[in-house]
Automatic annotation (TrEMBL):
<dbReference type="GO" id="GO:0016746">
    <property type="term" value="F:acyltransferase activity"/>
</dbReference>
<dbReference type="InterPro" id="IPR002656">
    <property type="entry name" value="Acyl_transf_3_dom"/>
</dbReference>
<dbReference type="InterPro" id="IPR050879">
    <property type="entry name" value="Acyltransferase_3"/>
</dbReference>
<feature type="transmembrane region" description="Helical">
    <location>
        <begin position="5"/>
        <end position="23"/>
    </location>
</feature>
<keyword id="KW-0472">Membrane</keyword>
<feature type="transmembrane region" description="Helical">
    <location>
        <begin position="180"/>
        <end position="197"/>
    </location>
</feature>
<feature type="transmembrane region" description="Helical">
    <location>
        <begin position="258"/>
        <end position="279"/>
    </location>
</feature>
<feature type="domain" description="Acyltransferase 3">
    <location>
        <begin position="7"/>
        <end position="348"/>
    </location>
</feature>
<keyword id="KW-0812">Transmembrane</keyword>
<feature type="transmembrane region" description="Helical">
    <location>
        <begin position="155"/>
        <end position="174"/>
    </location>
</feature>
<feature type="transmembrane region" description="Helical">
    <location>
        <begin position="331"/>
        <end position="352"/>
    </location>
</feature>
<keyword id="KW-1133">Transmembrane helix</keyword>
<feature type="transmembrane region" description="Helical">
    <location>
        <begin position="300"/>
        <end position="319"/>
    </location>
</feature>
<feature type="transmembrane region" description="Helical">
    <location>
        <begin position="68"/>
        <end position="90"/>
    </location>
</feature>
<feature type="transmembrane region" description="Helical">
    <location>
        <begin position="124"/>
        <end position="143"/>
    </location>
</feature>
<keyword id="KW-0012">Acyltransferase</keyword>
<protein>
    <submittedName>
        <fullName>Acyltransferase</fullName>
    </submittedName>
</protein>
Length: 382
């Protein structure tokens, strides 16, 4: 029941990371949380509702396309407008948010695929986080066809993921590992393993917490946030004292690859705890009203994830600013943009996502596979 709240918190972490002058890698940790959640939920539904062979796979692909693309294209149009109106602000705010006449790059913006390649992110990204959707889409297909279809496949995948993580820690920097299909694979694999080997996770996590308890879910989210954010107050204090990012980097580990991979146990615990809470009107913390609020916040998470940079560019341009990166930005421009991101996301949910959801429900009913636990919502990217 808390899945929506969890996704909303992850999306808000990305907004914080990109719009406020954070000093660590809060956004990277949040995206890892999204990837892990997708690994679990996609594995769950392709072994449940969409398990009836080629028919199920075809309906799965159609349903995923309806989930991803309509909202993405609406947000892409908003981002294009922001960049076209304020090109200098856009380039100063995010160097990848620039217009181009290259047909191949334009196609990547529309189709999503290709926004992350062997050399890293594409040079153009009207929705700067679109590369992560490219990763999501590739893993949707891999999980639905091979990696998530059996316990053996997922176990081998998990071992492979541990191997790539070990190599990355010893040989790569964080960005090389993060902006990659290969070295991020462990994150998705852990999510898939939570489906296939849930009883093992239950034994491990139940040693420290009570499964299904809302207090456990809240504590799990708090632990994740504490681990991810612990550097922030220290870094902000140092910056205010010295105005030097170099001094922050000297004192704090910041973008350590160890810290990034270290978030995975916390993210797995948070996911296990939030997914286990069931609707039960005997308690306010598990009541149906709170469940509906959580579901709605989950609906907001995807457009919030997509819109935040474009909204910052639009607000900065309208207020006469020139943009900038990190601490270079005018703080109050971000403070104006943030609530507008959530308001615009509400409009997208109302006029795009909810009508499309009704179509998706009809498409989903075409399947002949096993129906998954209805108390766990269908997968929804950030």
């Amino acid at each position: 029941m808390y899945q929506g709240l969890y996704r909303f918190i992850l999306a808000s972490m990305v907004v914080y990371a990109h719009l406020l002058p954070n000093v660590a890698d809060v956004g990277k940790a949040a995206v890892a949380g999204f990837f892990m959640l997708s690994g679990f939920l996609v594995t769950r539904i392709v072994n449940g509702r969409y398990s009836d062979g080629l028919r199920g796979f075809g309906i799965f692909v159609l349903n995923r396309a309806l989930r991803i693309y309509p909202t993405f294209w609406v947000c892409l149009a908003f981002a294009f407008a922001a960049i076209a109106l304020f090109p200098t602000v856009a380039a100063n705010t995010n160097p990848r948010m620039v217009l181009t006449s290259d047909i191949g790059e334009i196609a990547k913006q529309i189709l999503i695929f290709g926004q992350l390649g062997p050399e890293g992110r594409a040079p153009v990204g009207w929705i700067s986080v679109g590369w992560s959707l490219s990763v999501e889409l590739v893993y949707y297909l891999l999980i639905a066809t091979v990696l998530g279809r059996s316990k053996i496949a997922t176990a081998l995948w998990l071992v492979f993921g541990i191997g790539t993580m070990t190599y990355a820690i010893g040989n790569l920097g964080l960005d090389e590992a993060y902006f990659s299909y290969l070295y991020i694979t462990l994150v998705f694999a852990i999510g898939a393993a939570l489906h296939h080997f849930g009883e093992w996770f239950d034994k491990v996590f139940s040693l420290i917490a009570t499964k299904g308890s809302p207090k456990t879910a809240i504590a799990a989210i708090a632990l994740l946030l504490a681990y991810v954010f612990w550097q922030e107050p220290i870094g902000i204090y140092i910056y205010l004292e010295t105005r030097s990012m170099d001094e922050i980097a000297r004192v704090l580990p910041l973008d350590s690859i160890w810290i990034f991979y270290g978030t995975l146990p916390f993210a797995a615990f948070a996911m296990w705890a939030t997914l286990a809470v069931r609707v039960d009107d005997s308690s306010v913390l598990t009541g149906s009203k709170l469940a509906r609020v959580s579901d709605y916040l989950g609906e907001l998470s995807y457009p919030v994830f997509l819109l935040h940079f474009a909204m910052l560019i639009m607000v900065t341009g309208l207020l006469g600013g020139t943009g900038g990166q990190g601490p270079e930005r005018v703080l109050w421009h971000s403070l104006v943009a943030i609530p507008l991101v959530y308001i615009l996301a509400m409009l997208v949910v109302r006029f795009v996502e909810q009508p499309v959801q009704r179509l998706r429900d009809k498409v989903r009913d075409l399947t002949h596979g096993k129906v998954a636990d209805p108390r766990i919502k269908d997968v929804q990217v950030p």
